Amino acid sequence: MSGTISDNEIISRLQKLSISHPEVIEHAPVKGGAEWKAELDKVGHGSVALTKTLLFKPKTAKTAAPTPVLVIALESTETPSSILGNHLNLKELRLASEDLIKEVIPSAQSKDDVSSLALPSIPSTLHVCLDSALASSSEAYGVHLTSSSKTVLLKGTDLKSYLESLTSGGNVQVVDFAALKAAAPAPSAPASASKPNAAPAAAARTPAAKKDEDLYEMAIQYKKEEDFPGWYADVLIKGQMLDYYDVSGCYILRPGSYTVWQYIQSWFDEEIKKLGVQDCYFPMFVSKAKLEKEKDHIEGFAPEVAWVTRAGSSELEEHIAIRPTSETVMYPYYAKWIQSHRDLPLRLNQWNSVVRWEFKNPQPFLRTREFLWQEGHTAFLTRQEAADEVMEILDLYAKVYTDLLAVPVIPGKKSEKEKFAGADYTTTVEGFIPTTGRGIQGGTSHHLGQNFSRMFDIVVENPDRSVTENDGKIHVYQNSWGLSTRTLGVMVMVHGDDQGLVLPPRVALQQVVIVPVGLSKTEGKNGEIYDACSKLEKTLIAGGIRAKADLREGYTPGWKFNDWEMRGVPLRLELGPRDIAANSALAVRRVDNHKAPMPLDGIAETVKAYLEDVHERMYEKAKAKYDSCLKTLNNWEDVVPTLDAKNVLVLPWCEEEACEDMIKEKSASQANKGVAEDAKAPSAGAKSLCIPFDQERFGPFPDGKDQKCIQCGKPAKSWTMFGRNGVLSAWFKSVRV
Amino acid sequence: MSGTISDNEIISRLQKLSISHPEVIEHAPVKGGAEWKAELDKVGHGSVALTKTLLFKPKTAKTAAPTPVLVIALESTETPSSILGNHLNLKELRLASEDLIKEVIPSAQSKDDVSSLALPSIPSTLHVCLDSALASSSEAYGVHLTSSSKTVLLKGTDLKSYLESLTSGGNVQVVDFAALKAAAPAPSAPASASKPNAAPAAAARTPAAKKDEDLYEMAIQYKKEEDFPGWYADVLIKGQMLDYYDVSGCYILRPGSYTVWQYIQSWFDEEIKKLGVQDCYFPMFVSKAKLEKEKDHIEGFAPEVAWVTRAGSSELEEHIAIRPTSETVMYPYYAKWIQSHRDLPLRLNQWNSVVRWEFKNPQPFLRTREFLWQEGHTAFLTRQEAADEVMEILDLYAKVYTDLLAVPVIPGKKSEKEKFAGADYTTTVEGFIPTTGRGIQGGTSHHLGQNFSRMFDIVVENPDRSVTENDGKIHVYQNSWGLSTRTLGVMVMVHGDDQGLVLPPRVALQQVVIVPVGLSKTEGKNGEIYDACSKLEKTLIAGGIRAKADLREGYTPGWKFNDWEMRGVPLRLELGPRDIAANSALAVRRVDNHKAPMPLDGIAETVKAYLEDVHERMYEKAKAKYDSCLKTLNNWEDVVPTLDAKNVLVLPWCEEEACEDMIKEKSASQANKGVAEDAKAPSAGAKSLCIPFDQERFGPFPDGKDQKCIQCGKPAKSWTMFGRNGVLSAWFKSVRV
Fold first, then answer.
1. Does residue B670 have a pLDDT over 80?
2. Which of A234, A576, B27, B456 could pair with B331 in a Cys bridge, judged by C-beta atoms 3.0 to 4.6 Å apart?
3. CB B284 to CB A370 under 8 A?
4. CA–CA dist B214, A490 (Å, integer)
5. 3-class DSSP state for residue A638?
6. Which of A239, A236, A509, A269 is nearest to B278 (CA)?
7. What is the third-level CATH fold of B7-187+201-218?
């Protein structure tokens, strides 16, 4: 095998072969498909279909020269090494060592850089296996150049020509992996007519197969603690919550995530209706005139507004915006509908999507160009009624997190600096992502006072005619409050682990999966097990539990375990001959992998209680973590080290904005200075997250009169939470830049 | 009073006063605000705020000269003539006769043309009362010129200057109607502290007040049978189902309509989930490349696609479409997600909104630029499974109409000509609007065969490996099915009457309204009645009934009856001293105004049964009407007269397209010829609506072998429904052009 190939050499090889391709895309180095996808997404190529290139080493005599196998396949093609080994008559294929990689592809710095384009040549000792689905496709796919930070788009057929041009003793084998896989499992038993799926081939493998090399590519590729953004993207995709989309910043919400949103919707909607709120739907379009009517309000949104300027082939006379939020859409109608105090309160809510065309890096659920939310907009005769509602709604938001998503939050008030522009005050439920030590705003309920009613002239006669102030007129008191699909991102980040998603049972698409185990290779022997699984599924569904029996043929129990673990199903019930004999199932709890038999008698009731217990365990676990990271400090010296240790600070603060700014500035600069040796240290300063309503939990204050503001030393007014924020973005920055 | 004023004279008067105004808007003549709004909406000015101009005549001695009162007010201002009369010291104001109108404003042809702009002058005998809300406003409002077919936009302050320029002995009085109204009711009793709303002023009026002149402007202005489009717009606005919006073709769905949609959503979603369908959400944006990938499919939508070309101040490099439907959005991902027959069936549904930028006249619910719907997209291994689902879904659509909306529909198959482009076949539930005699498609469920899976390459290995056909691959079988907010339009058109909406109880926002009656003028005497109403409200709500006690002060019972009738509340319970003494309430059924006492003991259960009975009555009434308009014909001569009598035809048909075309052509031309004397006769030909699945109800056919196609005389294959369609558009055309 010959010398190192450069990117330029690859390009000139392509030119020689007259293979046209778009420009080379540069991005941050990536590990694996999910991260690659995420990086391409950032630079506007999120929809590119990807390839994967894997180098395997078969078992050979130690003295023999290695005969490595290079597999180039669609990212979505399963390429089990055992089956490929059988096909090539090679034993025990294992992923190649870095040494072997450098031998085959000298330009590669690590396994992430393995790319077939950088092969110097294809000698007879190298097996090159090209996925037939890729070889025959005239679609363009992403392939790396010499490193994982550059991507070129090539048609499958062109890639094939390219590889064939490199043969020098060896050759390029086109392999139909799907066919190999279908043909592979030894027991060729045709399924019985009455129960076609009853005897899955290869199902005899034991759970141990889970750690098989076949699962290597399928499992989550990142450790949550080591590469949080990579892990996050990987669990979302492999856990089937979402998929990338070919409009940057937009994602497909698959049933795994959308259903969680529906449970949130359904619960919250019922609760607000009990309060007297009604749902409505305003158009997604806003005229330029309406949008720009309130200059101050729109200023913040203007750079992100998407404009429709054309319909069919007609240019529109007036450009039309897609709503970024609905204040200026709705309030002119409030002015019309509210003619008298008898029309109050007016309490409307919308479930819709809004569009904010952000140009920063998109992040699934946290920063997307279109997102789903609810927005409540209400109007009252008195400030007190409005203020009461603010808290009622905030309480519901807290319950969405604690009671549905098993995520702890702390309700409080935003500082003047951090409140919603246009609000008298903003209340919030603050969440926490332990992995990054960052706070995250979970949902906000604003009291708008009369700020918008004055702008939009929403006014009624004072029913108390003795009042002559303001000509006897009252501008109504308004609130607005919103909760978005960001909730789903928080849920994933708080609960997920290295095996994948961990879903809280009350909102999980599937609450229970039933997997048949201990299957016999002998045809027709497994009917009883399959029947027992189906029966159990029916029993649980009849009991109101979202259960599914996974009777897919051709997958080992281990493969299935892994699959459902990635998807975060709270409870797995394994059912095999011994379980059936013992009239029980083996219950495996996702959150802690706890295993115990569960009697089949009365199982629906048992499972219900079990799932409630799972919810409690998940909540308690997350709450214990949050609580342990809430650090009450009184000395400034402790601030930066405590932040660096991924904590949220609870500081005595005078509530002056100058102090708030100073805390941010000082904690940022000291962070940079103090821990310069750790390149990954987040350098952002701490900003105020909220002033918790429950002050008492943090000790005898504000009664303790001697308590001083940690920054200025003047009397403190409250315990206030401070922390670094930007859950993913700051982290992205810290690990990538 | 002097001579006739022309439009040109008005314009030149404005110029003399240096009053600037945009161009005059021309439109069809209108009667009242709803129709005016609708006409302005058609020409892109739907958001214009309107004025109203009313001429009243007070009671004077017959021999005395009349002293008419001209009121110019915001459309939304209530201008009760009794209160105005008190204010002006004039007796019994009544709307003026046409003779008096022509005397005051000689250019006016009818009361619809009354406009203050066309006043020759303001003599001392004319009282001109200008709404203070209008007089002080610098917003622009719509005002007519000399006729109701022309609108000019004037600022309120400019209108005031204009009128003041016309004074010639008389003057312009600015009147604060809201203040008058608030001050008017005689009993000045201040509300008691403990129960501020307990003794509403003016509440002593009897139900007879309902027919008072005060209600004149508030009630529905059109007869359903006389002016269907005017009636439709009026009931939607006054029934508070929707409001106009300042982007043409878009409407605000107020709680009255959106909640109906939510009940449909909630019921249908639960049903499809039982079938195994899952919900998801795809982005609203589609890249140009994806949208245009399938040329044939997009061809029909292309002229109506809305394009986003700009975000903030940046021009987008690639223009992005807003989905008009989601086939090309979703199916590329189906190709990715479906890798094996084990991934089948894939059954996804979306609740979303789609945008079709139509340039035809918009019609609320029936033709809007953005509309809400669900779109189901499913994929199966076999044609049979897909075909079974088509019918399961169609059955659910039928139940949405019959079981939720109390609207009869007929399930059937569309002809080849009328099926969805790209489908193997289309099934439909066909509704009927008796007032226009038109059929309306209620919801469609399509079997797409392999048409899209071939385009998008959605393919799996055949699990039966003995099959070698097509290389052992199977393109999946697909369905798509959709139901939109059009359902709401059909519901309104079928059930509404001259008093307003009539809502089917299972989906009504409010099922029961409780109105206190027989109130005493004496302070503090009505507490018992109000308490009884509140208690009854609580009892019903606790029983799961959507009940509301209308305790608004300052409105007569009659006013409230009218208000809730317009909104279509199925059941009104009146509660007064006599009712309380008899331990009962007076139950008034909206659908037929039937009245009977209802005992208060066990009333929640009684009301539940009562509402179920209301549903049945509404359904039976609508079904009897539909059935009576389904005319089985065998002779061609009967076709046109039967169509003209607002029927749907059931014809024996050979199922050949040529015959279908001929039926349409012949029925159109004969209609035009035959009934030329009636200018309102709809002239469209009859097209095929559907081939009902239940053929037997129409008699011994297709067994009767002698049955011949009504058009060609060859053997007929089925009874097929034919009718004119275009529920509102054709009707609009026929009455307006």
1. no
2. B456
3. yes
4. 56
5. helix
6. A509
7. YbaK protein (3.90.960)
Phi, psi of B53 (to 5 degrees): -130, 120
Q: Is B660 helix (H, G, I), strand (E, B) or coil?
A: helix
Q: What is the pLDDT of residue A211?
A: 34
pLDDT digits (tens, 9 = 90+) for A27-84: 988 888 888 888 888 888 888 889 999 998 887 766 677 789 999 999 888 888 878 8
pLDDT band at A373 (very low <50, low <70, confident <90, very high): very high
ipTM of this complex? 0.77
- Contact between residue A502 and residue A568 where contact means Cβ atoms under 8 Å apart: yes
Test A309 with B310 for CB contact under 8 angstroms. yes
CB A151 within 8 A of CB A36: yes
Distances (CA, A) of A720 to A628, A694, A715: 16, 11, 14
Looking at domain B512-621, its CATH class is alpha beta
Q: Would you call A136 helix, strand, or coil by DSSP?
A: coil
Residue A214 has pLDDT above 50, yes or no: no
Q: Does B554 sit within 8 Å of A342, measured CB to CB?
A: yes
Q: At B122, which amino acid appears?
A: I
To test the contact with chain A by mutation, choose from B136, B176, B246 the residue with the greatest count of A C-beta atoms within 10 A, namely B246
CA B720 to CA B657: how far, in whole Å?
13
State the count of interchain CB pairs (< 8 A) between A and B. 168
Neighbours of A149 (CB within 10 A): 17
Question: Are B47 and A287 a contacting pair at CB < 8 A?
Answer: yes
Mutate to test the interface with B, among A308, A538, A550 (most CBs of B within 10 A): A308
Output the six-digit token pair for B419: 């099926």
Report the Cα–Cα distance between both ends of chain B, in Å, rounded. 36
- B512-621 shares the fold of B7-187+201-218: no
**pLDDT at residue number B736:** 27
Instruction: Measure the CA–CA gap between A672 and A682, rounded to whole angstroms.
Output: 8
CA distance A370 to chain B (A): 7
Contact B285 A179 (CB under 8 A): no
Which chain A residues contact residue B252 at CB under 8 A?
280-283, 333
Q: Measure the CA–CA gap between A110 and A89, rounded to whole angstroms.
A: 27
Q: Where are the beta strands (DSSP E) in B539-666?
A: 547-549, 571-575, 584-589, 595-599, 630-632, 648-653
Which class would CATH give A630-732?
A: alpha beta
Residue whose entry in the numeric block shows the structure tokens 């493969």: A559
Q: What are phi and psi of B550, to 5 degrees?
A: -90, 90
**Looking at chain A, which residue has its C-alpha nearest residue B347?**
A255
pLDDT averaged over chain B?
87
Q: What percent of chain A has pLDDT over 90?
A: 58
What's the rounded Cα separation, in Å, for the pair B494 and B516?
A: 31
pLDDT number for residue B128: 92
Is residue A449 predicted with pLDDT exceeding 70? Answer: yes
For tokens 């919103």, name the residue.
A482
Show me where the domains of chain A are located. Answer: 7-187+201-218, 253-494, 512-621, 630-732
Best residue in B250, B273, B285 to probe A by mutation, most A CBs within 10 Å? B285
Digit-coded pLDDT (tens) for A301-325: 888 999 999 999 889 988 999 999 9
pTM, two decimals, is 0.77
CATH 3.40.50.970 at B253-494, yes or no:
no
Given a cut of 50, whether residue B195 has pLDDT beyond it is no
Query: What is the least distance, in Å, from the CA of A129 to any CA of chain B?
Result: 20
| Residue A266 Cα, gap to closest chain B Cα (Å) | 9
- What percentage of chain B carries pLDDT values higher than 90? 58
Assign B632 to helix, strand or coil: strand
Over the stretch B339-357, which tens digit does the pLDDT of each residue have?
A: 899 999 999 999 999 999 9
Q: What is the mean pLDDT of residues B393-397?
A: 98
Quick one: pLDDT at residue A670?
60
Distance from CA of B458 to the nearest CA of A (A): 13
